[in-house]
Amino acid sequence: MDDRVDNIRKPRADAVRNRERVLEAAKAVFSAGGPEASLEAVARRAGVGIGTLYRHFPTREALFEAVYRREVEQLGELAEQLRSAKDPVDALRRWLRSNVEFVATKKGMSAALALAVQSGSELHAFSLDRLTRAVGTLLARAVAAGEVRADISPEDLLRALIGMCYMHDQPGWQSTTLRLLDVFVDGLRVQSKQSPRATVKTTKPAAKRKR
Fold first, then answer.
1. Does an H or E element contain 123, and which?
2. What CA–CA distance (Å, rounded) separates 179 from 110?
3. SS3 category, 6
4. Are 33 and 41 in contact (CB under 8 A)?
5. How many degrees, rounded to 5, is the angle at CA 196 between CA 205 and CA 91?
6. Which phi and psi angles does 100 have, rounded to 5°?
């Protein structure tokens, strides 16, 4: 009796795997194909039937929201993993760079997510809180180590990141954003108060010979 109840309550292992495959495939398809990418393309990439996809995600919006939540959770988990990294600035840089891939997926779902993540929605509040706490942990560690200036907030970092990502929409925008992100992180580093000056050797003009 208990075994039958457990089987009813717990998702089957293959169902869990199918759901994860669909989410991973959807991330790739939506990032590359934009909002017009078909659910059939997602099912093909995941190696499941379209019926299986719809059993897990009855609507297109449900799939988009699930992908979005999964990406946010993974970024939160990544921040936890990077807390033990030896170099706190490199950890912060790696987390911010991982967000560029997340934004690429989000851009592909922007039309469908417009209402779901609008300001004041539960999904918007969830993502903002999770990402702010994640980057805040890494930022605080870098500041405490004396590696990064202390007059910047987690919200500032997220605003700068979003600005860099959405300023570019042409093909290849990710590589441009990653390059700008590296420049931005380098600019956050605490600069030495006394920068070494180059020593310039001077030579005295040779004395004129008396005739």
1. helix 122-144
2. 24
3. helix
4. yes
5. 155
6. -65, -40
pTM (2 d.p.): 0.76
The first and second tokens of residue 98, run together, are 């991982």
Q: Looking at this protein, which amino acid is placed at residue 15?
A: A
Rounded to whole angstroms, how far apart are CA atoms 141 and 48?
Answer: 43
**Tens place of pLDDT per residue across the chain (211 aa):** 444 444 445 557 888 899 999 999 988 888 776 556 788 999 999 999 999 999 999 988 888 889 889 989 999 999 999 999 999 999 999 999 999 888 877 776 665 555 555 555 788 888 889 999 999 999 999 999 999 999 999 999 999 998 888 776 677 788 899 999 999 999 999 975 433 444 444 445 555 555 4
